[in-house]
Amino acid sequence: MMRAVTGAAGTLLLAAQVGAVQTTASAEIDSRSLARDVSVLAADSMAGRATGTAGNAAARAYILARFADAGLRPLASGYEAPFPIRGGEEGEPTRGVNVVGQVRGSAMPERWIVVTAHYDHLGVSNGQTFNGADDNASGVAGLLALAEWAVRNPPRHSILFVAFDAEERGLVGARAFVASPPVPRSSMAINVNLDMIGRNDAGELYVAGTAHYPTLAPLVDSITATAPVRLLRGHDRPGSQPGDDWTSASDHAPFHQVGIPFLYFGVEDHADYHRPTDDAERIQPDFHARAVETLRRAIEALDEQGGTDASASGGTDASASGGTDASASGGTDASANGRASASGGNGRKRKRGNGRKRTGSEEVLRYHKWMVCAAPY
After folding, report:
1. Residues 191-201: pLDDT tens digits?
2. Does some domain include residue 201?
3. Domain containing 81: what range?
4. 87 contacts: CB under 8 Å, gap ≥ 6
5. Structural domain includes residue 362
6. pTM for this structure?
């Protein structure tokens, strides 16, 4: 650890020191670039990237620069998409900022794959910095690598790359995005969410979502056969033991709640989860690169196999019903969703109840023809 290295100069020094990391076997994903991005985003100078802090703003500035360097196109309003945070306690942030870039598709530009990863973390508590290397600098680094690949290899469908803010405050950035999206919700084919993809001693990466969208299972299984990590389907079945169902555990939840299919890639919790020991040196560079390569193959397959049907159960499509789902409303109440504790607690992120359980008449069985062209916009 280099706890004494702080400030902008320290960030650059940390970035330079990861040059010796080996590259991955994939020609598409550079593990040195991944390691550099994690080291910068999880540096002490970022002070844990808590929403509304200077460290969070510094992380966002880094992501903005990387989006521009990668060649991602901004939205008409720019890369930044601010949103309000309501219902917090006095002194807590009232505003967050998502970062959004795009690659337009060559064949079906009006249909969108939305690739997401949250960049915020827990900040500083009791004098300890929660750097969040795996949670979720690893996911943001993966998002940046996938963005670079997509620019080099233009996809058939358009892709939105979104770095969400305020995930740790209750998926606030994702909820705001879904409530007021830059493209129509009906044009969003699928959400691919990256959260904690940087380390696993068993070489295992989970993908959740196929229990809700079973027609995605064959596509996932086709990737599993040759994936450079052990890709496992699971952690998405309602009625599972507490903490085992990740359906509402991260930023894919608001998409699911309005009927947009999702695939969520992440590892099971480890001893450093939501602790000040989640530092860059504990990332496993080879596994991280292989996980991102697996994600690249998944997105490539989703783009190529555009006729796949995804059956959606359990999420009301607000755009189809004419009303906005309360869980996806722009006036997100941070206090109602609960803020993750920086003290460590039981360290079980996947036990958070960020999603609203639906029962009875709220259950909807809906087929989302997820790669069929929507009306032009």
Report:
1. 999 999 999 99
2. yes
3. 16-355
4. 332, 333, 334, 335, 336
5. no
6. 0.79
